[in-house]
Amino acid sequence: MHDRLTKEHSGPFSNGRSVFARVPLTQGRYCAIPSTFDPGKLGKFVFRMYSTLDMDLRELVFDKPKHPECCGFQGFAKPHIGAMQISIVRGTSLPPQDKDGAVDGYCIIYCEKKQLTTKVVRDTVNPEWNERVTFYLKKPDEDIVIEVWNSNMIKDEFVGQYTIPMSDRRSYKGGNVISRFELYGKGKESTELKQGFIWLKLFYTEKMDEV
């Protein structure tokens, strides 16, 4: 979605052949955009990034997914009908899980056949995730599930989940509206209310040419 994201770093323009910057970043997804001082100038460049941890560094080539193909032919596979943007802002008042009364919380998002996981925020019952994901949907009527988990050395613990009702998708307007949702159990306990809340910002659109 082409909207303004939070700027983590912006380096000064320089006439030198190289520009170096050391930027502390938390674990997450980032977009690095090299640019020239004057707009419209084209040229080749080399971009190097170093990190203390492994990175899944990829070139962003397309503004949106390519039209799906079936057996090498376009038009036979089901196209993407809409796009759903989910900002997982924070969790509040989560139930203490560890002996010290804290939570090492993270979220798993299930959408159609995709699964994405946020970073782990440690030692707090009020984790701030501030992560955003975008799903291109072939089945916009299918609900999206967000599970909250506590990270452990041996076995992670389920905290609660919230199901985003996609029947209400046209009401998800995005903007600066952050909504609080209650957590529930899963399976046979899907109607059981759990302790804690998750705060989300939701945006849905079917204008694929504008995504």
Automatic annotation (TrEMBL):
Keyword field contains Calcium: yes
Superkingdom, taxonomy of origin: Eukaryota
Coiled-coil features, chain-numbered ranges: none
Entry-linked InterPro entries: C2_dom, C2_domain_sf, Calpain_domain_III, Calpain_III_sf
One GO MF term: calcium ion binding
Pfam families: C2, Calpain_III
Domain C2: from-to ranges: 63-179
SUPFAM superfamilies assigned: C2 domain (Calcium/lipid-binding domain, CaLB), Calpain large subunit, middle domain (domain III)
Record keyword Transferase present: no
Example of a GO cellular component annotation carried by this entry: membrane
Keyword line: Calcium, Metal-binding
Protein name from the UniProt record: C2 domain-containing protein
Organism name: Mytilus galloprovincialis (Mediterranean mussel)
Lineage of source species: Eukaryota, Metazoa, Spiralia, Lophotrochozoa, Mollusca
